[in-house]
Amino acid sequence: MARSLLVLSAAAGLAAAAPAAAQQAGGATQLEEIQVEGQGSARTSGDGAAGVVSNDGYVAKTTRTATKTETPVHEAPATINTVTQKQIADRNPQNLQEALYYTPGVRSGAFGFDPRFDSFFIRGVDVTYTGVFRDGLRQFSSPSGLFRLEPYGLEAISILKGPSSALYGAGASVGVIDLISKRPTDYRFGEVEVQTGSFDRKQVNFDIGGPLNEQGTVLYRLTALARDANTEMERVPDDRVFIAPAVTFRPSDATEITVLSEFLRGKTGGSAAFVNAYDASFNPTGATRTPLANGDFNDFTQDQGRIGYEFKHAFSDSVSLHQNARFSALSQREEYNGRYDTVSEAGGAGLVKEQFAALAADTYLKTDFRTGELAHTLLTGVDISLLKYSSKYALSSYDDPNAIPTPDFGSLAATPSRARQDQSLIGVYAQDELKWNAWRLTLNARYDWFDSIYKSNDVVANYNADGTIGGYDRVKDTQRQNDGKFTGRAGLSYVTAFGLTPYVGYGTSFVPNPGTVIDGTVTRPTLGEQVEAGVKYKFPDVNATINASVFNLRQDDGVVYAVVGTENRQTQLDFRSRGFEIDGAATFENGVSLQASYAYTDTKIAKPDSIKGKELTSTPKHSFSLWGGYDVQNGAAKGLSLGAGVRYTGRNFGDNDNRAVIANTARAFVDAKIAYELENLTPKLKGVKLQVNATNLLDKVEQVCSSNYCYWDEGRKVIASLKYRW
Description:
Blueprint: H1 12-16, E1 53-56, E2 59-63, E3 80-83, H2 85-91, H3 96-99, E4 106-108, E5 120-122, E6 125-126, E7 132-134, E8 137-138, E9 141-142, E10 145-146, E11 154-161, H4 165-168, E12 175-181, E13 189-197, E14 201-211, E15 218-228, E16 239-252, E17 255-269, E18 274-278, E19 284-291, E20 299-314, E21 319-339, E22 347-371, E23 374-398, E24 417-436, E25 439-463, E26 469-494, E27 500-511, E28 526-538, E29 544-564, E30 567-587, E31 592-607, E32 622-631, E33 640-649, E34 667-677, E35 688-695, E36 703-706, E37 709-712, E38 717-725
Parallel strand pairs: 7-12
Antiparallel strand pairs: 1-2, 3-11, 4-5, 5-6, 7-8, 9-10, 11-12, 13-14, 13-38, 14-15, 15-16, 16-17, 17-20, 18-19, 20-21, 21-22, 22-23, 23-24, 24-25, 25-26, 26-27, 27-28, 28-29, 29-30, 30-31, 31-32, 32-33, 33-34, 34-35, 35-38, 36-37
Subcellular location: Cell outer membrane
Domain TonB-dependent receptor-like beta-barrel: 260-697
GO biological process, one term: siderophore transport
């Protein structure tokens, strides 16, 4: 995964504070690929974003993510995990990593405490840049310009496992994480909330919505948040302002358009890690307790925004046109600094400025028809995405942490570098969902054309024989990529009358990678394929489901970021991942809710030969989680809600060389929740709710290493909230 901090040649520690900086030969920054997904518009109801995702408590009923249609979750021939609105409300996650803590096969927290970015792996594959979508469209990013997620603005999160390039374009071989925004509702409601908690946290939220006219043809929703908070690390705040207006227009029964928008301004720290110790070969041997940042030059500010629409027009009961489009933009300024070691206070500082603008549009025709006894739901579509990105950075060094020289973009001695990139992706695709009695067959085919122009303008130092710098040269480089690829997907399931659905699936993926690898050559496209088989069980008379699957995934020329020598660099690996997953969710009428999962993931590197047979970094073979909640329905304790969970991560390695010195021991974390509806004390407090959440309740903090650098787990965090809903 690429991160923005750049590695100072004097110490790998500063660079490794960001898991895998996106730096190329000569210091040129590189941009990850585009991928696009689409879906139609959706009406909303009290059940959530109906048509996009519907659920009952902890149990998901439908989701568009698997097929872009309303196919029930238990019928789709693929593994689908959903974080429902009730799960979000119960656990109160503060970022995407926390929201995915209880999802099987997903590795969160591989980089310990880090409020700057969300990072995660699915089945051993890093999907931070290639697998995150928002409302059916690619969530764009650049090396240090990752969109920050605000969970309070989400209705649900839908995770589709397996290659999905045949439907969504170039992307991760292991799946799609689709973030479903809160949408306008056809009923009036409102809530306001205040929060406090660990590290001087102060936050206020509100969420209101409903019809704007008597006819109900215009609906709205406005969600907002403001936070002033510190974190467990000095000079690393967690401040945020977020607002997300949305409106739905229904001019007729056949036409609907929903406009979704967001603006977020955030501030945290550019250096959020600890100094590492090293061996004679300059390989990390573990994290110290000395903070990397050693001065006040450490602000990381970011402005991000998006606006788009979901359009649907039904020509008839069997033919409809859908279009999903979004413009997004981001601008960030990252200051960072870090000590070279724990002995001296000398270190280095850097400044990164980065911005991008992106446009994505997906248009498809949905047609329902029959051929004899076969029922078809056919999608035929085209999507286009455009991205323009630019960045510049500069470095400086210091001996006095109280007098850090500001890096200068105009000075050659400050080694400034600049990069820009234009990317375009055009894809045409078709999907046919066939139904015959209890059989369900899904077929996908797609072809993508990818074009990229990458330009860099870097400063390279010239060294004298004695090791001193004799001067600087500016080096310009232009690289062009133009590629195309066919991908496919097929899945078959059998839906029994008693709720059991066995299924099998196969899919391929294609990711055209921009930039260069260590030796300066252009990065090769990443190819992937996966075979999966599983079974789902939907209890006939109980709101509960159980799903189990086995998979065999292969990825060729997968991009991996790690500290190499003194720099975080891009490398490419061939590897395979095999495993087994089982999960269950239930919400019973007596107020009990349960969620449980177990995942076995076995990874092996095939190339290069120097690490052949090794396991992928940060990927435990065994992991499980269990969360249980109870909402008291009656009696003296009516209105009381309790919840607790445990999440276990098995032993895994801190680098692809599998060095024992930075291997991660197995560990388990405990989370908890307690809430009370105050109207049970007095009717005057109707709608008022008090809730307290704790993550890592037992404050278990151990060293965690990933991509050849070591961090510390995030400690205990407690958040108390008082909410009024009407």
